[in-house]
Each structure stands twice: as structure tokens, then as C-alpha cells.
Amino acid sequence: MVLLSREAANLSFTYLFVQQIIYPIFTKLFSKNNRFYMEIEQFFSSGYQGSKSFKQLDVPTANATGFGSAADDYMERGIDLNEQLVKNKPATFFMRVQGNSMINACIHDGDIVIVDRSLKPQSGKIIIAVIDGELLIRRLEKIMNKIRLVPETPKLSSIEINEFTDFTIWGVVTYVIKNM
User: Fold this and answer.
1) How far apart are CA 174 and CA 36, in angstroms?
2) Pairwise CA distance, residues 148 & 153, whole Å
3) Is residue 82 part of a domain?
4) Tens digits of per-residue pLDDT, 137-150?
5) Which contacts qualify for 139-144: CB closer than 8 Å, 24 or more apart?
6) Could you read off the pLDDT of 50-71 as tens digits, one per residue?
7) If 152 and its partner were Cys, which of 20, 37, 61, 104 is the partner (CB 3.0–4.6 Å)?
């Protein structure tokens, strides 16, 4: 008969207690689909099991306690450009600019403008206008009862709108997306 030290006897008893009593109870209580069962199975299994049946769900998660990082208070979720740039989804459109009529307003050929049709056009705003069936991007200028469409380049002249002009304001430009 081999006599064990008190510590070795306690360890041996603890291992036998867990192996023969606790482990069978947990295996009966928890099905194989339960994550706790998989963790118990990994704890009591002996030897290397291989990695072919390994899944991402098999990675145990940490239940961290203690103080969090000071930076956690300032964490933000990712930036959603639709949330930032589009205020009214049904009335918002994206248009690609062709031409150099607005270069002094930093709107160049190939840029994308975000146009909101629900906004009220005001003097000084950049708008998309339809004149005789043609779309134009210009700055709206209302003085008294006169309307002018002003380009942001010295190469083009302003367009005076009178009662005989086929003219509608299609929408107001809210943002410009540039390609660098």
C-alpha cells in the first residue's frame, strides 16, 4: 500500500470526485449542443483532439472582470456615410458632375453631388436646375422678383430666368464627394 501525503491525497480525492461524480451529472444535464458541455469536454478530455472539427464557436470567451480601459468611454461605432450625409432617404439622390461650371465652388468634373429634393431652395445655395430639359448645376441668386443662375467660373455667364423660360428647380446640393 502506498501512503500519499496530505496534499497529494486531497488532489487525488478532488480529481476522483470531479471525474466520477460532477462530470457525469453535467454531461447528463447539458446536451452536446450546449457550449458549456463543450468546455467541460475540453477540460476533462485527455490528449490532442485535432483541429479538423474545430469551429469558431469552440473558442472560449473571456469573462473579464475589473476595470475597463479609459478609452472604452470614448469608443464609437463605425461611420455610416448614409447616416451622416443623407437626411431624407426618399428625396436624396447622387449625381455625377460633368463640366467645369462650378470650379470656384470646389465642384469639379467627375465629382459626385448629393442632392436633396425636399429642401427649399434659397438664394446663395447650389442647386440642380432643369432649363429646357437640360440639367444644370448652378448657384441660385434671388434678388427681388428676379432669379439668376450663377456659374462659379468666369468663363460662363449668368442665366437670367424670365416668365418664358422653361425652368424648374430639381433639388438642392447638400454635399460634394470628391475623388482624390
Assistant:
1) 53
2) 15
3) no
4) 999 999 988 999 99
5) 139/102, 139/105, 140/169
6) 555 656 555 555 555 556 666 6
7) 104
